[in-house]
Amino acid sequence: MIRCLSALWLLALACTSLAQGVLEHPVQSDAQRERLKVIAAKLKESLPVQAQMEQRKHLSVLHEPMVSTGEFSLSAAGNMRWHIAEPFAVTYRVEGERIEREIEGERELITASSEPSVYGFFQVFSRLFELDLASLERHFTVYLAPEAESGRWDIALQPTGAPLNRLVALVLVAGQAGHIDKVTVTEPGDDYTELLFSYPERD
Amino acid sequence: MLLRQVVFVCRLLVLITVLAGLFTLPRLSVDNDILALFPDKDARSAEALADELRSAGYERQLLLLLGAPDMSQLGEQLPGVVKRLRQCDCLATVTEGAGAAVQLPVEALYQDYAPALLSDAWRERLQSEASETLRNQVLRELLTRPGAMSTARLTRDPLGSLAGYTQALRPPAPGLLLDAEGRVRLQVDGQAYYLLSLELAGSPFGVGVQASVGRALDEALQPVRSLPGFRQLHTGVFFFTQAGTEQARGEISTVGLGSLIGVMVLLLLVFRSLPLLFLAFTPIAVGVLAGLTVTQWLFGEVHVMALVFGAALTGVAIDYSLHFFTKRMEAGPAWQAHTGSQRLLAPLGLGLLTSMAGYLSFTASGFPGFVQIAVLSSGGLLAAFATVLGFFPVLLRKPPASGMPRALKMMLVALGRWQWRLVAVLRQPLAFLGLPLLVLGVVYQWQSNDDIRQMQTVNPELAAMDKSVREPLGGGQALQYLLVNGADTEALLQRLETLERPLDQAVGAGNLGGYRSLADWLPSQQRQRQNLILWRERVLDSGLLESLYRQLGMEESRAAEFAQRLGQVEPLSPEVALADIAGSALAPVFFSHEGRHYALVSLVAPVNERAIAAIARKADDVQWVDPVARTNHLLEHYRVRAAWLLALSYLMIALLVSVRYGARGACQIIAPPALASTLALAGVLVLGQGVSVFHMMALLLVLGIGVDYTLFLREGGRSSRATLLAIVLSTITTVLSFGLLALSATTAIHNFGLTVFLGIVLAFLLAPLATARQ
């Protein structure tokens, strides 16, 4: 019981600290829309982009998050390379609607019917960088926190219906200028995943 | 005296018919289902039940693919299309996406039974891979695959083996994609489409369903059709039947209109009287009314095919009017209605009797549709006959102002002379030698064709579309299937499992595209227990799970709790699973019947029929079902039966007329239609057609009408111009109404029409053979 409560508390803490009350600010005004457009334009400007990434999976049944690290790159044309180096080497390549996985030199094609969740994740993720409000609003309620410090922004996406709401409860995207720094995906249970990006070129 | 009684009975009959008809007509129930035409023999057999369940699932599915250069614009409109479609009661379900991308109801149930539900690949991995290798593979997946790790997965399906199990339930769909908005797209010939799966609320063969679904589709798609570059693909039995109905409707209106105009122009030319023209059609109207009434009373409904063909056969009743008119015309001012009808009583009565005998022999064919056609047309002919004899003498009491026009008389004389010359040639001893030659020729050239696929004309555009849509969705389902049975569900599932090995081998050898079995959805209790033993041994007892949990950093007490729970998993029972499986559109058909349990193994094309049938033969309780072969076999059966029927009809008619004309006379009466039929048969054989049941049905018609000709000629005397004129007019009207069917694009109807055309023209030409030598 105590464990459960502490997990919930941790989750709540994580969410609030990340969200910074973003859920109080659904995108409604023209000013917010305009700001989103600016953010999207800056994201686009920064392409091609390369980043180090760290993935932390927080599961309610595990004490510590499971961590994996690697690199990520996105070309101006929208082609993505998602390479996890530790603890296991696996590379995903996304080119348009084609997704390929490479493990120990062996490549395999991922299709929507063979691995729908992997396929769906990359399709959505590679387009997160386009930040097109109209297409986001088709499936999510979009929130944008007021500008706290210069250049920083926090966006939240809450699925509005099935099948997305079965897989995802909330997506938080935090960034600065033309870069995404952190994506947090909260699942309907108590599990959530953090993706942290750092940009050697920028730093 | 006899005539007066007949006239009285006739009038009474017409009166009753009209009254009963007016009462029945508003309550007429018309059956549209083409399937009702087929005999329901073995209706209660398991095979028939399997067919029915299978077609209910398959025939009602239709796929709609919508594409445009700007897919996102189209995507925005998609929910509107779905909403509008759902408003129609004619559609049971409307789903975005298709089979492979839709969540199956049963998947939620599987979550708690992962150790019992192992795919072949996982069984092999558990048997052969070292624990450490397995653990590392699982860890790698958990840590690197997006969305792979969750509490539910770790505690209920720690190896992630369920994904492989459920994936096997869906046909592999190489062309299926998910776009950024999570919508399912299908890639067809390099172009993207959104996918809608629709299920009809009724049979696609129902004309009512066709109309309302067609309307719903038109209305729902109207807004997106205006999008620039909009493209649409679709497939499903519905679109094929819709195309078939449209073609039939088009042909019926062309043939029907052509025949009606032709007949009217002809009658106006010959009789030059508008009232007579209307009077000519009155017996047909009364006849159709009577036919429909009798059929409705006897069968509780009228099949649409019986309505069309039966009404057409009743159309032959125009001959009765024609005989009356020509008789009156020939008599001219000397016409006496009473004497005229007395002279007509014998030939018309005999004609009616033989026609009815001919049509009623249809009942022996066994096709329920044909039985209805026989009843409708016989009842119709009787009522038409009654109308002519009961009322024409009163209505046409007044003699015409003049007799037959000179020109017409001369034409008839010339035609008669020419016809006699032809018959005289045929009476030469040499021509008699020709008869065996003709028969030999027919026998030599004989070929039959009972292939239903060659008798239906499938719209080639739709067939090509079907192929291009089915391919990226993982191939089409073959028409053939295996029907497996067992004393109980467990026996059935075990039987299905023993089939897996030979079927897998067939797939490997290229004899089969693939197969889907109920055992994929629910393994037998026996196999599930084996799976559980293997899983416990290799995952729990070997310490694999413990080390996996430890590596993930799970607290020991919780790890032990989860491991214990997984160790207690029991097999998924049929009682729990079957209802959910039945609710999944992709699941194979299964049912129980008379205490036994049955399941279909559906096959994916291509199918090497011989190889798979051999597998079924070798196994117990497995039946190979090939619906096309079965239908072909049925058609062959009916062709042979119709041939016997034809012979029987000739015999019956011969017996009937021998009462009046003696044996020799009877032979003379039936010889012309018999010879005409043989020649018509030779004609279609020379044209390269294989003889089918439809040719045989046409020859039955040739017999019915052809015997009328010989009877009238014999009764009317060879010198009667009235009889000759009536026969000429009858031949032309028959050719106009039936012969025009030869223009149909549907092979079966074309063959029927052509045979009637050849047979009737020949029967007319040869009719004088029935009379004495000149």
From TrEMBL, chain A:
KW Protein transport (keyword) present: yes
CDD domains, sorted: LolA
Annotated keywords: Lipoprotein, Protein transport, Signal, Transport
Annotated signal peptide: 1-19
SUPFAM superfamilies: Prokaryotic lipoproteins and lipoprotein localization factors
Subunit note: Monomer.
The name this protein goes by in its record: Outer membrane lipoprotein carrier protein LolA
Species this protein is from: Gilvimarinus algae
TrEMBL record, chain B:
Compartments it resides in: Cell membrane
InterPro entries, alphabetized: MMPL_dom, Mycobact_MmpL
Extent of the signal sequence: none
Residue ranges of domain Membrane transport protein MMPL in the record: 189-430
Topology relative to the membrane: Multi-pass membrane protein
Upper lineage: Bacteria, Pseudomonadati, Pseudomonadota, Gammaproteobacteria, Cellvibrionales
Keyword annotations of the record: Cell membrane, Membrane, Transmembrane, Transmembrane helix
One Pfam match: MMPL
Major localisation: membrane
Protein name as catalogued: MMPL family transporter
Membrane-spanning parts: 252-271, 276-298, 304-323, 344-364, 370-396, 430-447, 642-662, 669-687, 693-712, 724-743, 749-770
